[in-house]
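The material for today's practical consists of a large collection of protein records. There is nothing in a record beyond a sequence line and a structure line. Backbone structure tokens are a discrete shorthand for how the chain folds in space. Nothing more is needed to start thinking about how sequence determines fold. As an example, a complete record with its sequence and its structure tokens follows.
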Amino acid sequence: MSTDLGASEDRTLAPGNGFLGDTWVNMRRWLLKSVRNPFIVTSSIVQPLIFLVLFSQVFGQVTGGAIGGPGQNVEYISFLLPAIIIQVSLVAAASSGIGLVNDIETGMFAKALVSPMNRGAVFLGKTLAEVARICVQIIIVVVVGVLLGANIATGFLGVLALMLIGILFSIWFTALSNVVGIQTGDTESTIIAVNFLQLPLLFVSSAFLPVDRLPQWIQYISAVNPITYGVDAARALVITGWEWNTILPSIAILVALDLVLTGIALVVLRRATSASV
């Protein structure tokens, strides 16, 4: 199968098709695919709860239940909640590439490429479906976290901001996992690749312990680790309030990452259009 993308999009777009329409069709397809898979629905709900309860018990015991800087006495559940929100976003974003590989293996991806759909809309629709799933998971994590004793300093508006941080964080890794999925074209290889990245990145960040309590070499890695910026912005919203000198730089870094990785994903997707899949 070989097509010329630049010429074919103008030539093959059917009357009535548009970017928003194509985005909606793709988002709806991926949402239905998730809802109709009981394993995905169940794991999406249960997994974040296990992370929150298990990690608060294990790491909470290590820290003595409370953590914080001079003059602070922050309960570990409040310290952990932002990390679990970012972890939920990371895991959901990682699964995006695996879903794409499933489409490649079943031939659905090839059908999408030869259709008149806008290539950007194909990626955006899939990303929005992941974002919707992440929002539901974040709400569940926040509710359970509050029931376990977490206190969100910024209140209801802070919860909305936490969802925004989770979404901004998820986009770059969603793009990365899709790039890996297209390049490998194999489920097992994609799972190994994304897991190889996500777990080490989590543990060499500020997710589970303050950075100043980690070994020096981990502190260096943490300073360039995107997870640190997602967690720090979310943690400011939960613990200290609208701390803009932490939140705004973190958001700027996440947005820059989103733009770069999304651009790379679109380039890879367009190249896949003109290659045999």
Q: What stands out?
A: The CA atoms of residues 229 and 253 lie 8 Å apart. Residues 1-13 have pLDDT under 50 and may be disordered.
